[in-house]
Design goal:
5-stranded antiparallel beta sheet, alpha+beta, single chain, 8 strands, Jelly Rolls
Amino acid sequence: MEVLDRELKLHLEKPLTSVKSIFEELVREEGLKEANLVLWVPHEVSSLVQIGWEDGLMEDLEDFLEDSVPKNKWVKHDEPDTPFRHNFFEHMRSKLAGSVSLTIMVKDGRLCLGKYQDIYFYSPVYKHIPEQKILCRIMKFE
């Protein structure tokens, strides 16, 4: 088994950004046939979401997060002198939406995802921190 580490840089323009094509391109560039992509998001207010694509699903997810963890309800957590005043809701929304880690199998040179599945990067702080990254450990089995 060969192990490769890659850092995938993102420039975010919205809270939910599809990143599936980044991993498809990585599979092509590295010539992967049989592998695991072990992904990790180092920023504590961001996550990876593996979800099916269907009309309205992303909008429903955003509404669910807003309803489940409303802004300005919890204000004990504070970061004075930053744009992140009382942002507990952003921390919790990222945890509800997804996870900081995800493993994707590569089989026969293709990501092992369902027909309609996509991978999204979720960051409710994208306006303040548009430059983010995903750390990827490639475990090659061929």
